[in-house]
Specification:
two-stranded antiparallel ribbon; 2 strands; elongated; mainly alpha
């Protein structure tokens, strides 16, 4: 393969990808994505029941969660040392 300047992903003996990540970043990404499912459901529920406050709170929390996930992914990519997850 030619080196195109892309980030190379190391593999362990079993072939699993080893990327630099902290447990905190992994938790932020996984819990955040889990929360997005419920926040989407609350948004739909708020729209259906004509409860704009419920829908607004769910949308606001969804935006905050997406920003948190983006920041966790950026932190994970910027780390060049640390644990391999």
């Amino acid at each position: 393969m030619a080196n195109t300047g892309e980030w190379h992903e190391d593999r362990d003996r079993k072939g699993h990808a080893m990327v630099p990540a902290t447990p905190r970043d992994v938790v932020h990404i996984r819990v955040g994505s889990f929360m997005l499912v419920f926040l989407f459901a609350f948004t739909v529920l708020g729209i259906i029941t004509r409860a704009p406050v419920l829908a607004g709170i769910a949308v606001a929390l969804g935006i905050v969660t997406v920003i948190d996930i983006i920041l966790a992914v950026r932190r994970q990519r910027q780390r060049s040392d640390g644990e391999a997850g």
